[in-house]
Amino acid sequence: QVQLVESGGGLVQAGGSLRLSCAASRIIFNVYVMGWYRQAPGNQRELVADITSGDSTNYADSVKGRFTISRDNAKNTVYLQMNSLKPEDTAVYYCSARRDPTTTARAYWGQGTQVTVSS
Q1: What is the CA angle 98-104-106, rounded to 5?
Q2: pLDDT value of residue 34
Q3: Residue 7 has what pLDDT?
Q4: What CA–CA distance (Å, rounded) separates 110 from 58?
Q5: Cβ-contact 23, 2 below 8 angstroms
Protein backbone atom coordinates (compact mmCIF):
# COMPACT_ATOMS: atom_id res chain seq x y z
CA GLN A 1 0.00 0.00 0.00
CA VAL A 2 1.34 3.40 -1.02
CA GLN A 3 1.96 5.72 1.90
CA LEU A 4 2.33 9.49 1.84
CA VAL A 5 3.15 11.07 5.18
CA GLU A 6 3.07 14.85 5.52
CA SER A 7 4.79 16.84 8.22
CA GLY A 8 5.72 20.43 8.98
CA GLY A 9 2.35 22.06 9.45
CA GLY A 10 1.55 24.30 12.38
CA LEU A 11 0.57 27.75 13.56
CA VAL A 12 2.44 30.76 12.23
CA GLN A 13 1.88 34.50 12.15
CA ALA A 14 1.15 36.30 8.92
CA GLY A 15 4.35 36.99 7.05
CA GLY A 16 6.04 33.93 8.47
CA SER A 17 7.27 30.75 6.82
CA LEU A 18 6.69 27.03 7.02
CA ARG A 19 8.18 24.09 5.18
CA LEU A 20 6.02 21.07 4.53
CA SER A 21 7.48 17.65 3.77
CA CYS A 22 5.86 14.57 2.31
CA ALA A 23 7.66 11.24 2.51
CA ALA A 24 6.47 8.59 0.08
CA SER A 25 6.88 4.86 0.34
CA ARG A 26 5.98 1.84 -1.78
CA ILE A 27 6.00 3.77 -5.05
CA ILE A 28 8.56 4.33 -7.75
CA PHE A 29 8.81 7.92 -6.60
CA ASN A 30 10.78 9.41 -9.45
CA VAL A 31 8.11 8.65 -12.08
CA TYR A 32 5.25 10.26 -10.18
CA VAL A 33 3.90 13.77 -10.41
CA MET A 34 3.94 15.01 -6.84
CA GLY A 35 1.61 17.71 -5.69
CA TRP A 36 0.37 19.76 -2.79
CA TYR A 37 -3.31 20.57 -2.44
CA ARG A 38 -5.19 22.37 0.26
CA GLN A 39 -8.71 22.52 1.59
CA ALA A 40 -10.10 25.22 3.82
CA PRO A 41 -13.38 24.75 5.71
CA GLY A 42 -16.32 25.12 3.36
CA ASN A 43 -14.10 25.11 0.28
CA GLN A 44 -13.18 22.51 -2.29
CA ARG A 45 -9.75 21.00 -2.36
CA GLU A 46 -7.53 23.05 -4.64
CA LEU A 47 -4.15 22.64 -6.23
CA VAL A 48 -1.35 24.60 -4.58
CA ALA A 49 1.60 23.33 -6.62
CA ASP A 50 2.86 20.28 -8.37
CA ILE A 51 6.12 19.01 -9.80
CA THR A 52 6.68 16.46 -12.52
CA SER A 53 9.30 13.76 -12.73
CA GLY A 54 11.26 16.16 -14.91
CA ASP A 55 11.07 18.91 -12.28
CA SER A 56 8.59 21.06 -14.17
CA THR A 57 6.52 23.01 -11.69
CA ASN A 58 3.06 24.50 -11.67
CA TYR A 59 1.61 26.88 -9.09
CA ALA A 60 -1.75 28.32 -8.21
CA ASP A 61 -1.82 32.03 -8.97
CA SER A 62 -2.51 32.77 -5.31
CA VAL A 63 0.85 31.32 -4.20
CA LYS A 64 3.16 32.26 -7.07
CA GLY A 65 6.24 34.05 -5.83
CA ARG A 66 5.63 32.93 -2.24
CA PHE A 67 5.66 29.12 -2.33
CA THR A 68 8.24 26.79 -3.82
CA ILE A 69 7.76 23.09 -4.49
CA SER A 70 10.75 20.79 -4.79
CA ARG A 71 11.51 17.09 -4.70
CA ASP A 72 14.37 14.89 -3.61
CA ASN A 73 14.13 11.61 -5.48
CA ALA A 74 16.89 10.05 -3.39
CA LYS A 75 14.78 10.58 -0.28
CA ASN A 76 11.37 9.95 -1.89
CA THR A 77 10.30 13.28 -0.49
CA VAL A 78 8.55 16.35 -1.83
CA TYR A 79 8.68 19.72 -0.10
CA LEU A 80 6.63 22.88 -0.07
CA GLN A 81 8.44 25.97 1.16
CA MET A 82 5.85 28.57 2.10
CA ASN A 83 6.98 32.15 2.66
CA SER A 84 5.08 35.38 3.28
CA LEU A 85 2.15 33.40 4.60
CA LYS A 86 -1.27 35.02 4.72
CA PRO A 87 -4.34 34.18 6.81
CA GLU A 88 -6.04 32.99 3.62
CA ASP A 89 -3.41 30.26 3.32
CA THR A 90 -4.97 28.59 6.35
CA ALA A 91 -6.09 25.10 5.35
CA VAL A 92 -5.35 21.42 5.59
CA TYR A 93 -2.55 20.68 3.14
CA TYR A 94 -2.49 17.33 1.39
CA CYS A 95 0.30 15.63 -0.49
CA SER A 96 -0.58 13.71 -3.63
CA ALA A 97 1.16 11.34 -6.00
CA ARG A 98 -0.12 10.46 -9.46
CA ARG A 99 1.16 8.90 -12.63
CA ASP A 100 -1.23 10.78 -14.93
CA PRO A 101 -0.50 14.51 -14.93
CA THR A 102 -3.93 15.31 -16.38
CA THR A 103 -6.10 13.93 -13.60
CA THR A 104 -6.14 13.22 -9.87
CA ALA A 105 -8.73 10.48 -10.31
CA ARG A 106 -6.24 7.75 -9.43
CA ALA A 107 -3.97 9.78 -7.20
CA TYR A 108 -2.69 8.67 -3.86
CA TRP A 109 -3.23 11.06 -0.95
CA GLY A 110 -1.66 11.72 2.40
CA GLN A 111 -3.63 12.28 5.58
CA GLY A 112 -3.12 16.04 5.54
CA THR A 113 -1.37 18.53 7.78
CA GLN A 114 -2.98 21.63 9.24
CA VAL A 115 -1.52 25.04 8.45
CA THR A 116 -2.94 27.96 10.39
CA VAL A 117 -1.85 31.53 9.72
CA SER A 118 -2.86 34.11 12.28
CA SER A 119 -3.30 37.77 11.45
Answers
A1: 65
A2: 97
A3: 96
A4: 20
A5: no
